[in-house]
Known about the structure:
The structure is a homodimer.
Chain A: E1 2-6, H1 15-28, E2 31-36, H2 38-45, E3 57-59, H3 70-76, H4 81-90, E4 96-99, H5 103-114, E5 124-130, E6 137-141, H6 151-167, E7 175-179, H7 190-199, E8 205-210, H8 214-217, E9 222-224, H9 227-253, H10 256-276, H11 278-281, E10 284-287, E11 292-295, H12 302-317, H13 320-326
Parallel strand pairs in A: 1-2, 1-4, 2-3, 4-11, 6-9, 7-8, 7-9
Antiparallel strand pairs in A: 5-6, 5-10, 10-11
Amino acid sequence: xxxxLDAMGGDRAPAATVHGAVWAARDFGMTVQLVGRxxxxxxxxxxxxxxGLDLPIIPAGEVxxxxxxxxxxxxxxxxxGMNVAVRQVKAGHSDAFIxxxxxxxxxxxALFGLGRIRGIKRPALSTIFPTSSERGFCFLLxxxxxxxxxxxxxxxxxxxxxxxxxxxxxxxxPRVGIVSTGEEEGKGSTLVKEAAELMKAxxxxxIGNVEGxxxxxxxxxxxxxxxxxxxxxxxxxxxxxKFLLGTIKQEIKARPLAVAGSLLARGAFNAVGKKLDYREFxxxxxxxxxxxTIITHGRSDAYTIRNALRVAGNAVEKDILHAIKTGKKEx
Amino acid sequence: xxxxLDAMGGDRAPAATVHGAVWAARDFGMTVQLVGRxxxxxxxxxxxxxxGLDLPIIPAGEVxxxxxxxxxxxxxxxxxGMNVAVRQVKAGHSDAFIxxxxxxxxxxxALFGLGRIRGIKRPALSTIFPTSSERGFCFLLxxxxxxxxxxxxxxxxxxxxxxxxxxxxxxxxPRVGIVSTGEEEGKGSTLVKEAAELMKAxxxxxIGNVEGxxxxxxxxxxxxxxxxxxxxxxxxxxxxxKFLLGTIKQEIKARPLAVAGSLLARGAFNAVGKKLDYREFxxxxxxxxxxxTIITHGRSDAYTIRNALRVAGNAVEKDILHAIKTGKKEx
Lengths: 331, 331
């Protein structure tokens, strides 16, 4: 297993990326190609014990910066780490591309460099979202690759999501729901109604509409939506969690006895924080491009990078590309 | 001030509605017309001390049930409480229509019975949403009246929201934002980009795009979105809050010491619950119809009904209808 990591991508690169790569190479026994500026990468590698690990450096002189215009930068900076990493995958020198860099840039680099899987109209960016169900998570897509969609795109997001949930996440016969404004058939926008009509005849386990409140409740294993709504949902979840936990802490601080209580309850709070922590999920797969691509949070630390490499490794091992290409659920 | 309450509407009607009306009549000195089945209303009124309160009963023999098809039921049941209450407003015998009943039915009853304000293309359902800002809330619309919108509808939602926030909620020069996938201009769906272009030239204080995470942070005082996205947001907020608070409680229960902690911290938890409680906000105004209309949660209890009547009273007192009709911000 050989993975290509954009070593210069993300707010904390290259320290966090190199550290995460060392961590993953040790924990999972994978080869991680560190793509970027050799001297910067070497300086970081020197801080770790890399005995027995396979961490080759693939030189790339340019970087897609976080504030670069994604499409323009990807086109202009041919020698950017993202582009070089994607070319590694394209050429068959690597099994997957992983980045914590400019996510619009990552989308563009993967789409331009790898192309779409034949028959897939639009790639979709996915994420794992925590739920209160026994399983503890659902698989949500699209969370930002396509802000304007057509019903057949949503139909295909359901297909790719179902295959990923089944093969990579180990969910048997995943329940696929589409986000809408009511649970009853016929509720929602014209787009959703038309997509649901297509999905009713799909070869996956389509369970109909799910409302906003049903997502954290875990009513569906795969939650399909357009990239506009999906992006608003995950960012809103981040903001609301911060607000809620912040408010609880503030209220606790305002009460003398409650401070003692909060000290005692601290373990519980930490457990909740961990449950919600995007670092645990290790980034989302970009499904539908012709190569395994994992795009993770710009704020990723070493632990998130390690987890993103693990997610990429799983997707390669379970051959999600082949599954989407054949469109069948043969596990 | 005379308000017309759909006394039979909502999961807990008529007990909660009549109780809420008694409460509001006493607290705010308003006349509340109780519209519905006289014997049911009288039986509830008998449970309260109504000395000195003005609570006339307006007979209405039919009810739009929670599982009725909204538009069909509103058309078929001419003598439903919602329709009778709306006719009270239309005829000038009342200043506002308030209901906790079938919300689709309430939309239809208000739209058919009162019509749109001249020049307003689509009415929008609004809500007050808690934020971590100093003000503690934002005004969010549309949360479900229109699942398919055009840019000019969003432009008008911004106008109506700004006027409401300024006149009724007392926010000076409200910052109006549009929900999108990135803060930078040009991010988002085609719909949002076109709407933002219109809003840049609006007579209100348009501050551009807000992301999902910016809503609970209170970056905008008025948050404009289409009724599909808005509905998903508020229902997702409900589900996520339940999940988060439930998880914290579960984690606390799992720890022996934490149980003691949680007893001490209980006051803090209650304060947070209150902050998030839709009961405090008293329902959302349906803006753009030609009569003050407040639609509140189907699960409303007496306290929510009381607050919804207070919200209606404020909207009447501050003459939001006149403000929207003139479209100017003259306070």
